[in-house]
Amino acid sequence: MSEPVISTAPQGAPASDSSDPVRALVAHADDNLVLAQRLGDWISRAPELEEDIALGNIALDHLGVARALYSHAGHLEGKGRTEDDFAMQRPEREFLNALLVEQPNGDFAHTMVRGLLFDAYQVELWTDLSGADDSTLAGIAGLALKEARYHLLHTSSWVIRLGDGTEESHRRAQAAVDALWRYTAELFEGAASEYHDIWRKVVGEVLDEARLQIPDDPYQRSGGRRGFHSEHLGPLLAEMQWMQRSHPGLEW
Amino acid sequence: MTLEERFDVILAAEDKIEPADWMPDDYRKTLIRQIAQHAHSEIIGMQPEGNWISRAPTLHRKAILMAKVQDEAGHGLYLYSAAETLGVDRDQMQTLLHQGKHKYSSIFNYPTLSWADMGTIGWLVDGAAITNQVMLTRCSYGPYARAMVRICKEESFHQRQGYESLIRLCSGSPEQKAMAQDALNRWWWPSLMMFGPHDTDSTHTEQSMEWKIKRVSNDDLRQQFVDMTVPQADYLGLVVPDRDLRWNEERGHYDFGEIDWEEFWAVVKGNGPMNRDRIEHKVRAWDEGAWVREAALAHAAKKEGAIT
After folding, report:
1. ipTM of the complex
2. Phi, psi (deg, nearest 5) at residue B193
């Protein structure tokens, strides 16, 4: 088979843990929710009106995927937890998102590079999970895949424009790659190595065209999947969960 | 038939003036001013609601709010395009906004201070906007009238969503209901101000009505809005903050109190609670994005150079 991503069994999917499907679903949902929360901050602050719309759209896509995954996790878990229980009632240590998505927006280059690194991963993830035995998950993944392909197109074309634009944009884009590269290996922990290889190829081609370098520094951070986060997640959750925490038990 | 006579014939026949048609300079200027102001209002209006995206109480409400603010950006884009058919470009209009030479709806110069403000803005502000805009779907300028048809559909959806979220608050805890009442207290009068000065003090109304840009006067629109909205407040069990408000059987309309015109003019002139913040936010985003827009142009120029 020439398409190793599709031919591999879903059990080998990046970041999924076949021994605990609920935990794996929650981890993927957390990725999407945290990124949606980050991207939502761009609305009314983007460099042009078209980007306000695009970033809002992408944030909504991620939010939609997060909601579907939380609901499904709650169903599988069978303890009656809702999407909002997962999103609003868990402390920082129980969030399982990758460190990459919780990194601050920074400038537009940071947001686009973070997006590129993550979207390339998600395209592989959803391709894989759209063949999952769990038909609900496969359905969610199938829809998410279409969206992720569009997200990847959006971020890769911006990274190319910025990397191969002006001196300033090149400098900013390279700074973003240097700062965020250390959060990428975590995305492939526990996955078969070909996933990471394919990702390196996809991302490498975009960076080449953008005239950007992969940093030499081999240092990689990890821990998000075990609830060991950077200090950026806490304030994000404090803001997101504030209404539910300060007015517990109400319907909105 | 002269060009001017032809213009008058089109107006009289209730047909639409299209971009390629001859039109009086003042007609063009009035439309540019009005459509640009409308577009700016959509764009500045993203800020007060954007303020609550990160804090929406549930994921469902967050998704609705995000989609709504995104719709507003879409409306802005759509309206700027309608204005561009009259010979100005978006950058010119934005620059005039940033310099304070173009206005936007004063309602967005009030801050959003609680979650209930989201529902209240949907209910009152979008409700007032629709009252205005339904009339504009019959505007004599084709591109504006057609833009309004589409925008009105989305606005009425937003209005229903806003009202629905207030129903939830008002049937919730005493704390939630108090939150809704506080929001109504703060947004009621500014919403009535959205219809502009009294007809007797409105400089543009008469000419705009003649040109069929505007079809109904400010005071008549305001009355329509009050008549529509007061029963909705009653249904929610909220009290409209106006001691003079009462049903007038004889007129078949609600009587209501006088707007604080001093506040109205202060906000119009730039001295409302949030005028400076709104423009500063907008200008900051624009300035901080300059290097991104320059990069996109530089990259496009390189690609162009590579092709030719």
Report:
1. 0.94
2. -70, -20
What is the tens place of the pLDDT at every residue in A146-203? 999 999 999 999 999 999 999 999 999 999 999 999 999 999 999 999 999 999 999 9
Residue of B69, B70, B291 lying closest to A166 (CB–CB): B291
Q: Do B50 and A43 touch (CB under 8 A)?
A: yes
Per CB-CB distance under 8 Å, the chain B contacts of A60 are 63, 66-67, 70
Helix A135-163 crosses helix A167-180 at what angle (to 10 degrees)?
Answer: 140
Q: Chain B window 66-105: which residues touch A at a Cβ cutoff of 8 Å?
A: 66-67, 69-70, 73-74, 76-77, 80, 90
Residues of B in contact with A165 (CB under 8 A): 294-296, 298-299
Judged by DSSP in three states, A78 sits in: coil
The phi-psi region of residue A211 (left if phi > 0; otherwise alpha if psi is between -120 and 50; otherwise beta) is: left
Q: For chain A, list the domains and their CATH numbers.
A: 21-214+224-246 (1.20.1260.10)
Mutation test of the interface with chain B: which of A41, A44, A171, choosing the one with the most B Cβ atoms within 10 A? Answer: A44
pLDDT digits (tens, 9 = 90+) for B249-261: 999 999 999 999 9
Confidence of residue B205 (pLDDT cuts 50, 70, 90): confident
Give residues with Cβ within 8 angstroms of B142, minimum separation 6: B16, B17, B18, B19
Q: Report residue B24 CA to chain centroid gap.
A: 26
Question: Measured between CA atoms, how close is A247 to chain B, in angstroms?
Answer: 9
Side chain identity at residue B219, one-letter code: D
Condensed to tens digits (0 to 9), the pLDDT of residues A93-133 reads 999 999 999 999 999 999 999 999 999 999 999 999 999 99
Asked whether the beta carbons of B166 and B120 are under 8 A apart, the reply is: yes
Distances (CA, A) of A136 to A23, A113, A125, A247: 16, 31, 15, 33
Residues on chain A touching B289 (C-beta within 8 angstroms): 46-48, 51, 108
